[in-house]
Amino acid sequence: MDNDGYTVNAARTVLTTGANSGIGLATTLELARRGFRSVGGVRSEEKARAVTEAAVRAGVRVETVLLDVTNVDECVQVIDQLRPYGLVNNAGYPATGAIEDVDDREARRVLETMAVAPIRLARLALPHMTALGIGRIVNVSSIYGRIATPLTGWYQAAKHALEGLSDALRIEVAATGVRVILVEPGAFRTRIWEEAERNVERRHGARYEQAYRRSIAGIRMTQPLMGDPGRVAKVIGRAMCVRHPRSRYLVGYDARLLALTDLVVPTVVKDRLERIVLGL
User: Please, what is the angle between helix 117-132 and helix 153-173, to 10°?
Assistant: First the structure.
């Protein structure tokens, strides 16, 4: 029996996608500490080695599998191989870009990676979970699954979609013993911010170039205040273990503040402030 009042069986396998860094890596290590057979999904052998090395430093044992979540055949193969008790859908990227700067191909890639793929993995895992009458699906969303800001519209579209799909799935499978949980982090120290800067570099010469520069400057200013991704991992670990997990876990002071602000501040005021900050 662990500290959260739930018996953890080492034979219970949990797959975490996007496990090579940030929240995914921290979650893979946290689940191993909690006694699970923790498996991290990564896209290359190099990233698999990074996970293994981090596990050695942390003094825990983890496994890795090569998994591109947008590859249907790989998803089928990995889920059939692992037959997981738990699934943590974490893989994603920042997808920075004004709506008119993102073409159809890029938009489809965002939605495939962060909305279609997580639910595909959940769909594939459900028969194994329902056969046992127990299982956990944790979908890592974001505070941007609740609110919207300029220059990241497609990222937010994917997270809003993931939240809606998770809400529907949670109700559909409730009678089977499978629990579907959303985790909504604010800003934490991960490589997603470096990727956001690289995305912005690709937008050189765009009509919104000044707004992009201001956005990146804001990220750089706030990075020292961002939390450790281990905090999110601990929340995911508890959600994977407790008898009665909550439907949503909002993680981070900034996430709570933004959620509250979205409720109480009129839309016209929020829009005006964001336009001033970004020079739109």
Answer: 20
pLDDT at 1: 43
Helix (H) or strand (E) holding 182: strand 178-185
Q: Find, among 153, 116, 145, the residue nearest to 251 by Cα.
A: 145
Residue appearing with tokens 């909504």: 184
The phi, psi pair for 236, rounded to 5°, reads -65, -40
Question: CA 88 to CA 17: how far, in whole Å?
Answer: 6
CA gap 273, 280 in Å, rounded: 10
Amino acid (1-letter code) at residue 267: T
Q: Which pLDDT score is estimated for 172?
A: 97
Cβ-based neighbour number of residue 192 at 10 Å: 21
Helices (H), 66-205: 72-82, 104-111, 117-132, 153-173, 192-201
Whole-number Å distance between alpha carbons of 13 and 21: 20
275: enclosing H helix or E strand? helix 267-278
d(CA 280, CA 274): 8
What ranges do the domains of the chain cover? 13-278
What pLDDT is stored for residue 94 in this prediction?
81
CA distance 125 to 137: 9
**Phi-psi map region of 176: left, alpha, beta (phi>0 left; psi -120 to 50 alpha):** alpha
d(CA 79, CA 279): 46
3-class secondary-structure state, position 53? helix
Q: At residue 258, what are phi and psi to the nearest 5 degrees?
A: -65, -40
- Catalogue the active-site residues: 141, 155, 159
**Six-digit token pair at 271?**
């829009």
- Using CA atoms, how far apart are residues 209 and 225, in angstroms rounded to an integer? 25
- Residues lower than pLDDT 50 in the chain: 1-7
Look up the CATH number of domain 13-278: 3.40.50.720
